[in-house]
Amino acid sequence: MLTEKEVLHIAKLAKIKLTPVDIERYQQSLSQLMAEIETVSQIEIEGDIMISPSNNQNRWFEKGSNEQLNEDLLKNAPNTEGSFIEVERALNE
After folding, report:
1. CA 57 from centroid of its chain's CA atoms
2. What is the C-alpha separation between 17 and 8, in angstroms, rounded?
3. Rg over CA atoms, the chain
4. Distance in angstroms (rounded) separating the CA atoms of residues 29 and 7
5. Is the CB of residue 8 less than 8 Å from the CB of residue 18?
6. Across 6-16, average pLDDT
7. Is the pLDDT at 18 greater than 90, yes or no?
8. Distance (Å, whole) CA 66 – CA 12
9. CA distance 6 to 24
C-alpha cells in the first residue's frame, strides 16, 4: 500500500489539497491502481503491438498544392479572419 507521504507527493504534483479522509481513500485506490498496472506490465507480448486500430496515415502535400483546399475550407467556415478559421473558446483561463 502507498504511504501517506507518497500520496501527499502525488497530490502535490497534481496540485490538489487532500483531507485526512481523502489521503486514506487515495492510499487504497492508488494502491489498487498500481497493483493493476503491475499485473498488466507482466503480460508477455509477442510480435507487433497495435498502437491504433486505424490504418490511417499522415498525408503530406507539396508546398502550394493545397491552396485550393484552403480556399474551399475558408469559404465554408462560418467565421474567418484572414487565412484562419475562428472558433469559440474551449478553455477558460
Report:
1. 20
2. 9
3. 24
4. 10
5. yes
6. 95
7. yes
8. 47
9. 12
What burial class does residue 7 get, using C-beta atoms within 10 Å of its C-beta: 0-12 exposed, 13-18 middle, 19+ buried? buried
Domain boundaries, the chain: 4-41
| CATH no. of 4-41 | 1.10.20
Beta bridge partners, 84, equal 81
Span 33-86, pLDDT tens digits: 999 999 998 988 888 877 888 888 887 767 666 666 778 888 888 888 888 888
Could you give the CA distance from residue 5 to residue 16 in angstroms, rounded to a whole number?
Answer: 14
DSSP-assigned beta bridge partners for residue 80: 85
Copy the grid coordinates of residue 2.
502507498
